[in-house]
UniProtKB/TrEMBL annotation:
Protein name as it appears in the record: Adenylate/guanylate cyclase domain-containing protein
CDD domains: CHD
Pfam families noted in UniProt: CHASE2 (PF05226), Guanylate_cyc (PF00211)
Family: Belongs to the adenylyl cyclase class-3 family.
Lineage summary: Bacteria, Bacillati, Cyanobacteriota, Cyanophyceae, Synechococcales
Amino acid sequence: MQPNSIDRWCWRLLIVVSVALGGLAAWMPRTLQRTDRALQQQLLLLQGTRPAPTNLLIVKIDDASFDQAAFFSEDPQAPAWAKDLEGFPWPRAIYAQLIDRLFAAGARAIAIDLLFVTPSAFGPEDDAALAQRLQRYGDRISLATEYREPDGSGGLSLGELTETLGSNLRVGYINTLPADDGQILDHPARYRETVVAPLGLPVLPSLPETLQKERSPARALRYYGPQGHLAQISAWQVLDDAEWRRVQGQVRDRLILIGPTAASLQDQHATPWGIQSGVEILATALANDRDRSGLRFWPQSAPMRALLTSLFSVAIVLVSRSGRSLRWQIAPAIAAAGLWMVVAWLSLLAGWVLPLLLPLVGSLAIGVSTGAAAYLREGLERRRLRQTFERYVAPAVVAEILQSPLEAQQLLRGQRRTVTILFCDLRGFTALTRDRASLGDEETLISQLNEYLTAMVTEITQVGGTIDKFIGDAVMAVFGSPLSQGEEADAAAAIAAALGMRQALETLNQRWQAEGRPVLDNGIGLHCGPVLAGNIGSPQRLEFTVMGDTVNLASRLESMTKELKAPIVISEALQQVLGDRLQTRSLGRSAIRGYGEVALYAVEGWAIAVPENPRVS
């Protein structure tokens, strides 16, 4: 397959995927709906808490009220209300006292989030106390009811309040529709539209709706913050005279919801902000109605969702296709995803919820597909280039060509470079081979030689050297071709390799001696200078290598290591490159055929720390 063919098939496939995403958006499976809703909720959480509304107040039946009752339990002069709060349910006369005080402080209306479905356990007088307040304040007080399954029959009916509280009471249901993961995300009005209306049951307002004149739209809840974020006071603070004087200023002109928040009363529900009590969820619904901040989903119709998602994805594909490079083909997908997130964020601020999952997945899919197509296209081009050059040059040169194709031609034609050459040869290995052959032990010797060469190659390559060739048991390595880090860095890497090779051989000899095998010794010669690097050979076999006097002199230095009784011998040129960084011993001047007298040095180690060099680690 050609690169152009990959491009054509990729763009066609992406258009098909864009249309398919539109269809999926119109008829999204429940699993994807849950994921989409979860993403939207996370975006809401990232926006942080919102200021709590000032026009409502929760009077909570909480642990603090029970604790205060327990605190007064041993006090013979405890107020009467404290004795009534020791257990639950509380006497209904307690709610009568709460109602009196709240209205006296200027409350506009009160809703009680408790189910009074049976006569009071404290007797008729207790019911009468609450019934009297219900009659006195009329429609300024509303009570809770619920739609429920009677006797587990599987049907649904509207629960009724006890007759002991009177008739013609203002009531509102407290049912909410939990999401698949148990979170309460929708206004109670959604329950009426989704469950109550289709069953033909009596239609009531929800409890929050009883505190206002208009019916609530069935929107998603927009929470203001975690548990306790909405304005609230404890029931005991209303009942206690001293506390009441301190907090009653919070009641004026507010809508009041009375309900349980104590965990022991088991009216706790999951929300995006964590666990919240049922009365807090109802208060959130009421607050959303008052400030009109409930969330609306757009688009609502399936065809519009399909059209929006498809157009968005197709636009990304078309813009990406116009890019001339991989970067500009992938960038539109990334930019589109970011832009969609910004638009979704701003829409949430205005109360509109946009789909998130499929537009983001579409952007990601287009970006990944574009990148994959580019990767395949580049892979084909690299493969063709490799097949073209791999017959002629060494793998290191192929890597150079693939990274810098424009410089490849000049590299293959030949370049003059300054490098450091390392030659390493075993001493006495020819005689050892002859002795082992006479004993018929060639296989063991070959195994030992392979162990040795593996260790030497490792030391060379780990500092960035290139193995140019093996000449029997000798190794020729180049530092600075085809890749160079600079003359001094290449020289330092070569010295590091030589010292490492001697150390590695010493470690091998210790093991071989313990195993009863012969020990080996080697000599290493190094020289730096200019060479000609390029393709050398015939059309049948080309080899990228280096040639010149620098190579020849390095080979001569290696052959003199035994005569000079120095395992590592370097030229004066190399010693001058590294200067006082290297600890050396002068070997004087030696006559070398073709070069005259040359000053030589034996390397004993580093005089100071190795020069900072990424190739010498």
